[in-house]
Amino acid sequence: MGKRQAYDILRPVRHVIAVDLGATNIRAARFAANDPHPVAQVRMLTLAARGREVVISRILDAIGQVAEGYLTDLRIGIGSPGPIDPRRGIILEAPNLPGWNDVPLRDLVAEALHCPVALGNDANLAALGEWRYGAGQGAQDILYLTLSTGIGGGVICNGRLLEGFHGLAAELGHMTLDRNGPVCGCGKQGHLEALASGPAIARRAVELIRAGEPSTLPRGGEDLAGLTAALVGEAARAGDPLAKRVVMEAGEAIGCHLASLMHAFDPEVVILGGGLSQMGDLLFEPIRNALRAHILHPYYLDRLRLVPAALGDEAGLIGAMALASEL
């Protein structure tokens, strides 16, 4: 074995810990730097109702569990729901985490563990993960949408994660599509999230059922509280006309919105992630049709790739790893 090879083996490996802070769960994973395959993972309940001090303590506990003594040359990346200020490392507001207003999470974790910490918007970091290690590899201009309980997004522009002046860019699900539309979870009216998220799909199905439209889904006189987008998707795949209509409407809204985003960013790749993307062509086909119908010029679609996300639920964690690797 040559001297250089021996040195490479003996050289300390920088370890990176990624944290995904959610309203229900905290996930943490340890990675060897720039390797998207975690070597240790943990998931625990957030216990958000107990207040931010408890949540911060659980974040530190999750980090400690996956660190397993690898505290030398450690870097930490944290993905959080927004809005956040990534430059100052502050969570400005987290609607599903009571009491989380202007919380300097980056500095709190850095001071507790004596290592560099980076904080990023969870959807932005999912975009970063898909670009570096998933469906966006090799491209320089990417749009990413996560379609789930909420709708978030991220933009890679000319090989850089777009953050904007305040670090608040790419809230792609909170752009107005119908100013007279339903109220979004954020309190504003007609956002894409209010029209095409999981809860929006379930709500629309309930409206049509109660209006008396034929369906194999539960009837209006039954308990509809348990109806979910996943159940609507299953019914649509089985041919239920009401469910197919609801999924098509959601896809059309997403495709129309994507046309506007194409006009703004002109991406090479559009990546759709989140649980709703698992509907496959049932959702993707109306998205493609609406995108073609609303685009300014067909050249926007020349060589465009519209693809499902490749990293699944791990995209945010892997993106947080990529962020921390740059520290």
> What is the count of distinct domains?
2
User: How are the strands of the largest sheet arranged?
Assistant: 3-2-1-4-8
CATH superfamily of the largest domain: ATPase, nucleotide binding domain
What structural class should be given to the helix and strand makeup?
alpha/beta
Strand content: 15-25%
Please characterize this protein's 3D structure.
The chain has ten helices and 13 strands. The strands form three sheets. Strands 3-2-1-4-8 form a five-stranded mixed beta sheet, with helices on both faces. Helix 6 crosses helix 7 and helix 7 packs across helix 8. The chain is α/β, with parallel strands linked by helices. 37% of the residues lie in helices and 20% in strands. The N terminus is likely disordered.
